[in-house]
């Protein structure tokens, strides 16, 4: 008997995917571009949150480097579009591969240290990387302010929503499936007590390396989707928003659960857009403080701590 | 061939010599490693397992010098240690705790390990819901998953009731019969002595005795250091 595939375990993911489908239907029925627009933005943040949850949420290696990989995806799609006029699917795919590569290079030194040291390095290395990319861009005479007028995923906002929904669903499914395999079991074990795994015969490093490379690949894919959604790739993709929201979504969705990110993401983004109408950019600050507090006081995730 | 040879092993914590030139080899199948609190027993087992890096000395396991071998590689050679203070994976089920290691050193069958350790009925329980007694068994079960040639047990029956202890000792006896060698650190001597073939006594990081259990009771130095001159070994 393969206990991993009992229906109960998968039900949470199916609930999430049903939520996605319901929202899709609502968006078509309501037919308000602003709502559709918010939903797409929310799903992009959900993609980032899923990656953060899959890598950091499950293993406990809190990674502050997300914005760098969003930037890698956005900038590389801009660059590849302007230089080679590649079609959109290629831009997405190559951004994903570049994300995996830079995630791999990022992971080799950082994953050798733990806890606060890892978190610190995860913040410092990407800052260095961002400066490096921008300096490099200047030397090459490329536009550091960004790339405008990028092609969009589709001419119709409804189709964009459909494409982003499909990508989100596939990513949710794949990441959730991985957490239910032996590989995922090792990641969950790392979250509990990594040394106890190593001293019982498993070398955890390759598991972490694969996990963070894949996760950062998905983050870059998210960055590319964002750039092609807004038709713009600039330095602001390296910004704070792309760390704080995904982290908050992953934590509120139940850290390490994967399935919780989707409903949490939709609620948080819609809420924050509503709040922005009244308090503007204060919203990001409030949500950031909330994310940090949750990280400090519920290191194992809100749901698990309440249990 | 002796499966384990330890030569001149030393380890200090700060200025404190936890192990001081330990030399011994595992001659028979099961050995008890005893000594008063703070004698250095855990530090010695940890050094053999690779969890602690010794300052000096050599460790030969199964004919291979493993002094500098990484912990997880040692397990892959068939050498594994349990923790004195149990370290379960609390958010995983008992079965998952074992499944983690199902591919290490060839692995063992999860159901038979659950059976041997008397944990069959708890397979689907989260480790955080287990009693202390069952956590102690899970600690041994995790090690058994790696199909060890030599099992290092750090107080496997510490804190267990007499009944629970008998269960664990029975499980260890059946393993021993199947050819698994072991070194057991325990304070509950009367319960493990019937089952071991030899004894090493440590005090202040040094070996003060090696021999059989019967020889042990006649040894003057041991009585001094370990039992404060009294003959009641069941401290
Ligand atoms: N990680 C450590 N850091 C500093 N000192 C340590 C460490 N581990 C052990 N010690 C010290 O080394 C000495 C030996 O400790 P050890 O735990 O090996 O003894 P033990 O024989 O296992 O004792 P017990 O029977 O209480 O388990 C003690 O003085 C202890 O305080
Ligand atoms: Mg000890």
String of helices and strands of chain A: HHHHHHHHHHHH
- Sequence stretches where pLDDT stays below 50 over 5 or more residues of chain A: 1-6
User: What is the CATH level 1 assignment of chain B?
Assistant: Alpha Beta
Q: How much of the residues of chain A is beta strand, in percent? A: under 5%
Shape of chain B: globular
Low-confidence stretches of chain B: 229-235
Average per-residue pLDDT of chain A, rounded, comes to 88
The count of DSSP E runs of length 2 or more, i.e. the number of strands of chain B, is 10
Total DSSP helices of chain B? 9
Q: Quote the average pLDDT of chain B.
A: 90
Work out the radius of gyration of chain A. 19 Å
CATH topology of chain B: Rossmann fold
Largest sheet strand order of chain B: 6-7-8-3-9-10
What structural category arises from helix and sheet content of chain A? mainly alpha
Structure at a glance:
The complex is a heterodimer of chains A (307) and B (235). Chain A has 307 residues and is mainly α.
Give an overview of the whole structure:
The complex is a heterodimer of chains A (307) and B (235). Chain A is mostly helical and 307 residues long. Chain A has one domain (15-301): ABC transporter involved in vitamin B12 uptake, BtuC, CATH 1.10.3470. Chain A is 77% helix and 0% strand. Chain A has 12 helices and no strands. Chain A has helices at residues 7-30, 33-59, 66-84, 88-110, 115-139, 157-179, 182-198, 205-230, 241-252, 261-279, 282-297, 302-306. The longest helix of chain A is centred in the N-terminal third of the chain and has 27 residues, at 33-59. Residues 1-6 of chain A have low confidence and may be disordered. Chain B has one domain: P-loop containing nucleotide triphosphate hydrolases (Rossmann fold, 3-Layer(aba) Sandwich), CATH 3.40.50.300. Chain B is α/β, with parallel strands linked by helices. Chain B has a 6-stranded mixed β-sheet, sandwiched between helices. Chain B contains 9 helices and 10 strands. The chains are: A mainly alpha (307), B alpha/beta (235). The A-B interface holds A 3, 182, 185-186, 188-189, 191-193, 195-203, 304 and B 49-51, 70-73, 75-76, 80-81, 83, 87, 89-92, 95-96, 99-105, 124, 142-143, 145-146. Residues 13, 16, 18, 35, 37-43, 84 of chain B line the site of adenosine-5'-triphosphate.
